[in-house]
Amino acid sequence: HCLSARALCRREIDGDRGNGYSWKITLLRNYWKSKVKQEWLSGKYSHVPSQNSLPEKSMYPMDVDTWGEILEAELER
Asked: How many domains does the chain contain in total?
């Protein structure tokens, strides 16, 4: 799980590890973020008619750089 989360959230996980968090805490802090980010990057929400149509777990607090990655992927589609 740690490696799959790191594949999507390298900056966040490397930052947490650099700040001394254990792998367990790092995974807890980033696992759901990586799942939500993967769904956004894969285009799962590309054709949602309104924000009310988004599933409850489609949002997660992410930083500006992460949303930038998502928007760049959306522009490439």
From this structure: 1
d(CA 6, CA 12): 8
Which among 5, 2, 8, 37 has a CA at the least distance from the CA of 22?
Answer: 2
Q: Which residues contact 33 (CB under 8 A, 6 or more apart)?
A: 5, 9, 12, 60, 61, 62, 66
Structure tokens that stand for 23 in this block: 């792998």
In this predicted model, what pLDDT tens digit does every residue of 34-60 receive, in sequence order? 988 899 899 988 888 888 888 777 788
At 67, list the tokens: 């949303």
pTM for this predicted structure: 0.75
Q: Which domain holds residue 49?
A: 1-76
pLDDT of residue 27: 92
